[in-house]
Amino acid sequence: MQLYCFTFAGGTAAFFNQLEQTCAGQIDFVKLEYPGHGSRHREKLCDTFQELAVDLYRQLKESFSGGDYALMGYSMGSIAVLETLRYLMGQGELPRPRHVFIAAHEPRTMVNVDGYSAESLDEYIKKRTILFGGVPGQLIDNKSFWRMYLPLYKADYLMMSRYDFDYLAFTTDIPAVVFYSEQDTPRAQMEPWKRYFTGDREFVEYTGSHFFINEHYREMAAVIMERLGV
After folding, report:
1. What sign has the CA pseudo-torsion 53, 55, 56, 61?
2. Phi, psi of 102 (to 5 degrees)
3. Contact between 53 and 83 (Cβ < 8 Å)
4. What is the pLDDT of residue 110?
5. Which residues contact 30 (CB under 8 A, 6 or more apart)?
6. C-beta of residue 203 within 8 angstroms of C-beta of residue 119
7. What is the DSSP code string of 87-145?
């Protein structure tokens, strides 16, 4: 069983390491790297989720082992999962995934960057990223950190601001699990995922802020393994 993982805005494939270690020997994790991020930092960043989906589909297709597989997205990765799944099913070259797991992002455009100057946009993105807990405390005032990572956050936030769920005409009956925290993305805001996933749907609640996976990766791993039958 392969599990393809799609990371958060500004994140890298290493984000899923703890989850992978918890599922060791049970699931083959394929942690996808976005262009311009992590091990692919020298590559051009994507401008749209449609462009990103083509790249992620290529990675998925190249590493596909031929058996059952599932998709998992965290935060921005939930949008990447949706768009990649739409592209995958449109290509008709691979079987459908057995299950989809999405987390920490409601199906709506959350980032509005209209009216920001270049400088104020940088500050907005910094504050938002810090608020979500995406930056370790010791790095918040580290200029070298922001020089390296702010372009990644900015590219991903701009990409999210351009994605319009209202015009997405896509549905699937692939079973889906939605992980969320009331403190971060309340259940009422996550319910609209039912518009796109029309089959068996399950909402699993955890406590904590946006990166609740850091405290609950063991529980999440147990849910994933149970739903995948491993």
Report:
1. positive
2. -130, 155
3. yes
4. 67
5. 2, 3, 4, 5, 59, 60, 63
6. no
7. HHHHHTSSPPPSEEEEES--SS-----TT--HHHHHHHHHHHHHHTT-S-GGGTT-HHH
Instruction: Name residue 71's amino acid.
Output: L
Q: How far is CA 52 from the centre of its chain?
A: 12
Q: At what angle do helices 76-91 and 143-162 cross, to 10 degrees?
A: 50
Q: How would you write the pLDDT of the chain (230 residues) with one tens digit per residue?
A: 999 999 999 999 999 999 999 999 999 999 999 999 999 999 999 999 999 999 999 999 999 999 999 999 999 999 999 999 999 999 999 999 999 999 999 998 766 776 778 788 899 899 989 988 888 889 999 999 999 999 999 999 999 988 988 888 899 999 999 999 999 999 999 999 999 999 999 999 999 999 999 999 999 999 999 999 99
Average confidence score pLDDT of the chain: 94
Tell me which residue of 119, 112, 116, 153 sits closest to 134, measured CA to CA: 153
Amino acid type, 56? L
Q: Report the alpha-carbon distance of residue 160 to residue 117 in Å, rounded.
A: 18
Longest dimension (CA), the chain: 50
Q: Is 69 exposed, middle or buried (0-12, 13-18, 19+ CB in 10 A)?
A: buried
Question: pTM for the whole thing?
Answer: 0.94
Query: What one-letter code names the amino acid at 26?
Result: Q
Assess contact for 64 and 84: CB atoms under 8 A.
Answer: no
